[in-house]
């Protein structure tokens, strides 16, 4: 069998935590930050853990992350 392909966009954006959950950066932090509330920007620091439905989709894109 040939190797399965990983989506190159997914491997740049997602990783796994120690407990096996999928970790990703928080959205809406790249540009037009002046018009966004300070509370929103503060909450978007660091990374977040994806919910189960989104995590399942990421695992389809990344077969070797399972």
Structure description:
- With 66 residues, this protein is α+β, with helices and mostly antiparallel strands.
- It has a single domain, classed as Factor Xa Inhibitor (Irregular), CATH 4.10.410.60.
- Helices cover 33% and strands 15% of the residues.
- It contains three helices and three strands, in the order αββαβα.
- The chain has a three-stranded antiparallel sheet with strand order 1-2-3.
- The model has no long low-confidence stretch (mean pLDDT 95).
Quick gist of this model?
The chain is α+β, with helices and mostly antiparallel strands and 66 residues long. The protein has 3 helices and 3 strands. It has a 3-stranded antiparallel beta sheet with strand order 1-2-3.
């Amino acid at each position: 069998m040939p190797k399965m392909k990983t989506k190159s966009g997914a491997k740049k954006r997602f990783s796994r935590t120690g407990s096996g959950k999928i970790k990703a950066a928080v959205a809406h932090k790249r540009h037009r930050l002046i018009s966004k509330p300070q509370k929103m920007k503060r909450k978007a620091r660091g990374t977040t853990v994806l919910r189960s439905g989104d995590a399942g989709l990421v695992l389809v894109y990344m077969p070797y992350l399972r």
